Amino acid sequence: MKQGLFFRFLAASLTMLLSFGIAGCTNSFGNNPLGSSAAKLPGAAIFVSKQAPVMLSMLVNPDKLQSLERNGEISKLKSSLLANTGIDYKQDIKPWLGNEITLAVTTPDIDRDPENGLQPGYLMALATNKPEKSREFVDLLFSKRAIAGTNLTVEQYEGVKLIADESQPDHVLAGAAVGDRFVLFANDPKVLREAINNVQAAELNLTNSNQYQQAIKQLPKGALAVAFLNLPLVAQWQGLQLPETATYNSEIISLVLPNNKELVAETTFLGQGETLPPLQPLSKSSGALQYIPASAGLAIAGENLSRLDNSNLAQLWRQVTTAVSSSGKEGLSRLVQPLADLEKRWNINLKEDIFSWVQGEYAIGLLPRPEQTNPDWIFVAEKTESAPAGISHLDAIASSNGLSLNSFDLDTQKISAWTQVKATKLNDAPDKSKYAIDTKVYGIHTTQGNYEIFASNLETMDEVLNAKNNSLVKNRTFQNSIAAIPQQNQGYVYLDWTKSQEILETQLPILKLLKIVAKPFFQNLRSLTVSSYGDNPELFKGGVFLQMDGF
User: What residues are paired with 210 via a beta bridge?
Assistant: First the structure.
């Protein structure tokens, strides 16, 4: 198959799923509207090798999605996908298409000869409900190419008729109707032959991979789409270098619509043996969050930051960042750059100077300000036995950096501030000897109940102290966002998209491109929440919970 066409289909499939989620979230269905219409597991996995880097399956007929669309997004995607092919979806594909479309990168290099460049193998499998009609479609597709003057090659391989258009070496299309269940397309006849071999020699295919078998056990009920990744092979395909000590060797991602309010993307990373322990679960609804105002665009809640570096989350992060950085790529650098800037500006080590003493609950909030580029921030930490010494240590660091520690009252609240005082000569004053005293605040903190609250400035602290009746925990959007997270979770990151998109686009310019590619999704996205949960010592499980407008 043309590489361009393959990736167009892949992008279309993913965008259809996102569009479906948007539409589904705005409909009045009480449960998954597709019900039993979705396939349970990818049947096409029998064609895919154990050595395949990636397999993506959409487990629902596109027409089921189309019944939920609002603005014709899916119809437009179908038209775009089939443009210039001479194929009409309604007439040629719809009559026989079943409940599964699977796409796979079968190998990083078809001929396994790196000397002539890497040519990945691509496979597409379409489930059929009417074998005769699907065979007619394959014949029709290639006969139109023959009529246009293309020389086709036809061969019988293990009882299956393979047809290929190899007239353009860089844009090969091969197809076959295999049995009564699937139609296959590939970008090289070799890919089709190997797919057939994988069926006949069952030990070769993905369904008999231990990694895959363990991964599919983690799938939630009613998954509408599933992606399985063999991480070492994905790294090879993408030119990355996994560390030799890499813990996680496979990943499975699923897309679920649990009700009419949200879309859930759940992922599980499977390790080679036992991993580091998960983060400490939240023991209760975070009391620290009551001090984060509802105006926050981003909030993080968790417990015991001192254990972060010895957790499975840190283990996974180290594997990802090591793979990317060792390959000379900077895709993740922007995600951690704000933290690096903070450490440099304050001359601190986050792990040693802050994380080490935060052994109870904590919450972090970012508050966007239209009049400034950077948001204001709030950090709330429960006061455990180690907290007083940690807070005093931060005061000492501020002092060593030339800042003064000042105390004053804000109404009746005792406030401590890290400030820098500077005298400026007033050259335009009548008396040239007059000076103005400027005070710059670098941070303030105070105690409320059993929590120490840090803020970027006095205005933000005032908002925190008056947030009792307007805190984030009382915000309906926030409550809806965390409602579906399993109660036994290790904390979460909440993002209000409407408030935070400008900040995120500044830090991650690629988001501007994604907004163009998946415009329907971003137009309707209200908020997303990321959480990790589960206590299995051999895997890392997490989910992204997306709230959409319109319900």
Answer: none
Q: Three-state DSSP class for 115?
A: helix
How far, in Å, are 150, 304, 351, 479 from residue 354 at the CA level? 68, 11, 6, 29
Mapping DSSP onto H, E and C, the string for 395-437 reads HHHHHHCCCEEEEEEECCEEEEEEEEEEEEECCCCCCCCCEEE
Q: Which of 355, 348, 343, 354 shows the shortest CA–CA distance to 311?
A: 355
Low-confidence stretches of the chain (pLDDT < 70) are 1-39, 65-86, 259-261, 284-286, 324-341, 427-433, 505-522, 549-551
Burial of 369 (0-12, 13-18, 19+ CB in 10 A): middle
The pair phi, psi for residue 55, each rounded to 5°, is -135, 130
Q: Cα–Cα distance between 291 and 447 in angstroms, integer?
A: 11
pLDDT tens readout for residues 130-162:
999 999 999 999 998 888 888 899 999 999 999
Q: Please give the Cα distance from 233 to 249 (Å, whole number).
A: 9
Q: Are 60 and 38 in contact (CB under 8 A)?
A: yes
Q: Are 195 and 47 in contact (CB under 8 A)?
A: yes
3-class SS at 292?
A: coil
Torsion angles phi and psi, residue 250, rounded to 5: -155, 160
**The two structure tokens encoding residue 236:** 């090879």
For residue 169, give Cα distances in angstroms to 96, 118, 122, 140, 305: 30, 14, 15, 22, 55
Task: Output the pLDDT for position 535.
Answer: 85
Amino acid 160 reads: V
Q: At what angle do helices 333-346 and 497-507 cross, to 10 degrees?
A: 80
For tokens 């086709």, the residue is 152
* CB distance 262 to 548 below 8 Å: yes
Contact status, residue 216 vs residue 206, Cβ threshold 8 Å: no
Contacts of 120 (CB under 8 A, 6+ apart): 105, 106, 107, 108, 109, 110, 237
Distance, CA of 478 to CA of 498 (rounded, Å): 13
Are the C-beta atoms of residues 250 and 257 closer than 8 Å to each other? no
Give the residue among 52, 51, 41 at the shortest CA–CA distance from 213.
41
Residues facing 197 on adjacent strands: none
Checking DSSP bridges between strand 413-425 and strand 404-410, what pairing results, if any?
antiparallel
What is the rounded CA–CA span in Å between residue 61 and residue 182?
14
E strand or H helix that includes residue 15: helix 3-25
pLDDT of residue 477: 86
% the chain with pLDDT above 70: 79
For residue 70 the two structure tokens come to: 């609002």
